[in-house]
């Protein structure tokens, strides 16, 4: 069966999406990602890569995945088609946010408190923090297409991780949520997953950016209002100013020198010696662009320059500018410039 996004998602285009991409890194809240040991980070990456196994074991179909198992620190996203789902007791390994993309179904689930029952409709969401001991999870009817987004346990260093879980740090175990921002971010992530090559570097960067926005929303609305649950780094990042000239130049130089490879938010934040959330806010304050927008613009500008050389193929230009294929370059180029690469080249060489 072909997965078809509902018209509600397909109609979400243009200025709304551009505005979200531009503002998602700092519009809701600001947090800071703390440094963790390699072994702990690797364990969480492995957990995120396999956390969807309980759905496959129960008969659900994996429709699309961001395939993040080789990317430490990255947000992971998967789309599953669920029918009747019965998951018995399990310990939630990572924080998971689920957004309904298509269908209506009754959910029943229970952790340490009372049973949660809710009707899931398109756009509704639920949160399952890491460390929750779930007694059962049932979807009483289907089919239902759900986006599952797997987040770092400490939400990029904002939550104190004293017991190794997000539930212990104040993140809510909550279902039946109707939050317009979570809905919009979820639809955007699903759209990128369905239309993009899994190797597409620009799409991976965009998915990570949306993940940061989602983490920010969770911190704003779905944690206990207790300062003790948040790290000092979180409060430091809230007062972040724009990048100073030296750090900004280092970041811009790094981007320019590494366009032909995948550039992650962790990479550029590390160059600036800041956390991911701190960096995203400071970079936007200094430049007026989110890191994703800036890197995308630089890649398009490099492609434009190379299109002026008639002996370089479109595929070679795509790889040189950081796109996984000529088709992905063409899609991004048409969106940014209004012309296909071939049309632009014809005008330049005329």
Name the CATH homologous superfamily of the largest domain: Jelly Rolls
Q: How many independent structural domains? A: 2
The CATH class of the largest domain, by name, is: Mainly Beta
Judged by helices, strands and strand pairing, the structural class is: alpha+beta
CATH topology of the largest domain: Jelly Rolls
The profile of the biggest β sheet is:
6 strands, antiparallel
- Number of strand elements: 10
Radius of gyration: 21 Å
Whole-number mean pLDDT: 80
Strand order of the largest sheet: 1-2-9-4-7-10
CATH architecture classification of the largest domain: Sandwich
> CA-to-CA gap between the ends?
46 Å
Shape assignment: globular
Reading the helices and strands in chain order gives HHHHEEEEEEEEEEHHHHHHHHHH
Counting DSSP H or I runs of 4 or more residues, the number of helices is 14
Give the low-confidence spans: 1-49, 68-72
| Helical coverage, percent range | 40-55%
Q: Per DSSP, what share of the residues sits in E-state strands of 2 or more residues?
A: 15-25%
Q: What is the compact description of this entry?
A:
This protein has helices at 7-10, 14-23, 38-50, 53-57, 180-195, 201-221, 232-238, 245-257, 265-271, 276-287, 291-307, 314-320, 326-337, 341-349; strands at residues 61-65, 76-82, 85-91, 95-102, 105-110, 116-120, 125-128, 133-139, 144-151, 174-177.
């Amino acid at each position: 069966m072909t997965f078809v996004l509902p018209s509600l998602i397909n109609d979400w285009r243009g200025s709304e999406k551009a505005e979200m991409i531009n503002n998602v890194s700092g519009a809701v809240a600001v947090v800071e990602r703390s440094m963790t040991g390699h072994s702990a980070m690797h364990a969480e990456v492995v957990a995120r890569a396999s956390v969807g196994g309980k759905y496959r074991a129960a008969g659900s179909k994996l429709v699309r995945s961001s395939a993040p198992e080789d990317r430490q620190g990255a947000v992971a996203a998967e789309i599953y088609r669920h029918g009747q789902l019965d998951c018995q007791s399990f310990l939630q390994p990572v924080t998971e946010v689920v957004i309904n993309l298509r269908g209506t179904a009754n959910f029943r689930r229970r952790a340490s408190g009372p049973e949660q029952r809710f009707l899931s409709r398109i756009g509704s969401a639920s949160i399952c923090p890491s460390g929750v001991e779930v007694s059962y999870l049932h979807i009483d009817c289907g089919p239902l297409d759900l986006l599952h987004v797997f987040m770092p346990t400490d939400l990029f260093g904002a939550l104190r991780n004293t017991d190794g879980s997000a539930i212990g740090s104040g993140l809510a175990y909550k279902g039946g949520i109707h939050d317009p921002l979570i809905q919009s971010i979820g639809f955007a992530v699903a759209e990128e997953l369905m239309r993009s090559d899994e190797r597409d570097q620009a799409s991976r960067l965009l998915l990570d950016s949306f993940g940061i926005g989602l983490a920010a929303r969770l911190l704003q609305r779905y944690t206990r209002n207790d300062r003790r649950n948040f790290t000092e780094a979180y409060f430091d990042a809230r007062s972040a100013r724009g990048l100073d000239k030296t750090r900004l130049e280092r970041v811009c130089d790094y981007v320019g020198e590494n366009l032909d490879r995948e550039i992650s938010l962790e990479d550029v934040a590390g160059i600036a010696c800041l956390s991911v959330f701190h960096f995203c806010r400071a970079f936007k304050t200094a430049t007026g662009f989110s890191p994703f927008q800036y890197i995308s613009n630089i890649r398009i500008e490099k492609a434009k320059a190379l299109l002026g050389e008639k002996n370089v193929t479109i595929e070679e230009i795509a790889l040189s500018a950081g796109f996984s294929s000529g088709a992905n370059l063409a899609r991004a180029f048409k969106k940014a410039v209004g012309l296909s690469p071939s049309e632009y080249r014809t005008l330049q060489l005329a």
